[in-house]
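FW: tagging you since you asked about this chain on Friday. Here's the raw sequence from the shared folder, copied in full. Didn't touch anything.
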Amino acid sequence: MAEYALELSGVCKSFGGVPVLKNVDFRLRKGSICALVGGNGAGKSTLMKILTGIYTKDSGRLRVNGEEVIIRNYNEAKKYGISLIFQELSLIPTLTVAENIFLNKELRRGKFLDDKRMEEKAEKLLESLGLEVNVREKVENLSVGTCQLIEIAKALSDNTSILVMDEPTASLSDKETEILFRIVEDLKQRGISIVYISHRMKEIFRIADDITVLYGGETVAAKPVEEYTLESVIDYMLGGKQNEQLMTWKDRTAPIGKELALKVENLCVENLVKDVSFEVHQGEVVGLAGLMGSGRTEILECIFGLRRKTGGRIFLEGKEVNFRNVREAVRARVALVPEDRRREGLVLSHTLRDNMVVTNFEQVRAAGVLSAKKSNAVSEKAIRDLKIRAESANTRMVNLSGGNQQKVVIAKWMNINPKLIMMDEPTAGVDIHAKSEIIELIRGFVSQGHSVIFVSSELSEMMAVCDRIIILHDGRKTGELTHKEINSEEVLQRAIQI
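HL: got it, structure written out here
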């Protein structure tokens, strides 16, 4: 009997003559969890798309349970028991949970759909995962976290034996993440083999049996998890470069200004934000910390004109503002990098250039029409300045890695020369090196006297970049800490939990 559920040997893949994978080896032991990690552009997604038939390899071998196979499309992958849970949810919002689970494999009674039997089977499947979800509920009415868990149920309905999970916790709350970990451990006990792709090192060390690291399209490490340290994984991800404490505080190169960039007084947003007040000085990074549902995102959306406030006042550079829409906020040079870059920050089917110029058409007009020359110049400058890995400005956003997509979101808002930029989970789903580049970008931005409101679930990032942190709980401000008052993650974690 074969020891490995999955073996890829000497896999190569190029796009337009540019090699993306170079003789990559990857092995997944039966009934185990192998974490696949690497920086943005390392080749993780390309390798998994080859495994699931979305791409075809140029050369190399693929074995499933010891048998050499050729996978040319996703249906062939499913035939071999391989399922991929995409980073972008693939559920159809207007269909019910049961309809999504049985999409393209509907059960029938004669010529008609057997809705009752599909609902019964969907209920049993969800119950086996310990999930309490109404299978008749439309997906559009469910949280992103619940949808992620339904994606797993959908994959298991295909008799999956090899499950690929791409950043599965990126949109989950702490409670939902714990449910996911329980489900993953249960699947492993059932003999299902799992490829687990994540940038979150803590959860990898918690859940994985083995770790394979890719760098520059090559396998640079593959061994049991106990043979790694956090520092060694990061060093491999950076190509053997020493980890220089990328997520640590650096003293300011310019002092915080005395003038206020933003003042929020007694802000209320329905029952989501309750009587919150805080200030942001020019040249300052202020963090908003709290658990899911604490009101962090709602505060940013209200300031930006995406939500209506139901009470309180907002002042920008001493002048009261009440943005009714995004256009008014942009005119005032206020920007928001949203939490969900794929749904709210980018048009994935369009090119890098299209996405880059959409926030400031005036910048690229000539004689009243959009200038291709100016648009290309803006895009090429962003590619250079932010070190965006893309073949050209004509590259479609869907073909960029998560970290490079995020850099485009940030770059497009930098095009309006913002006075205040609000960042909601700006490093979610990006690797450690790209995170450090985003943190450095923020430092450079505030050194010019501009201001940032920073929201992140990664406390180490907040400690690395925030001058002050506002603590939120259940829509209320419960505390405020300066950088000097936070000497460890435990201090900040305790403040959030209280």
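FW: The CA atoms of residues 251 and 441 lie 15 Å apart.
HL: agreed, and The longest strand covers residues 4-15.
FW: great, closing this out.
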